[in-house]
Each structure stands twice: as C-alpha cells, then as structure tokens.
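Put briefly, the fold is written as integer tokens. The lines below illustrate.
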Amino acid sequence: MRKSGEPVAWVVYQMFLDKKPEAINVVCEQGDWDAMELARPGHYKLVRAGIATEAEAERLARGTSGDAKHHLPRRS
C-alpha cells in the first residue's frame, strides 16, 4: 500500500470478459498491475504503463469514446 503524497503511476491494460469477443481497456495503479502480473504472468495484455495521471490513463483507455462531439458550423 502506498503512502499519502507518494507519486502514483497509472497503467492501461486489456482483459476479456466472459462471453465477449473483444477485450476491454481497464485502468489501475501501477502497484496493482505489478501485483496482478506477479500473480498471473501474461494473463492480461499491457497497453501502456507509467502514465502520469489517472485522467490521462482514462483518456487512453477510452480512446475516442466519450470525446466531445464536434459539430460543423451551420451554413448561412
């Protein structure tokens, strides 16, 4: 368990859910990823590690899903 004030790195990884053909992206703290990988090496696919903020990790995990929609200007 990390102490308050320690810098936290974030990880995005992929996992499969039962009966779903495609993987989903998941975000967790680096320490949690390290423990998961130690317990089940290679079971999950790492997308990226060492991400500075949770918000950045969430954006990476989400891809374009959830991005603001851009509207074309109306023609006069």
Notes: The longest strand covers residues 10-16. Helices lie at 30-39, 54-62. The mean pLDDT is 84. The longest helix spans residues 30-39.
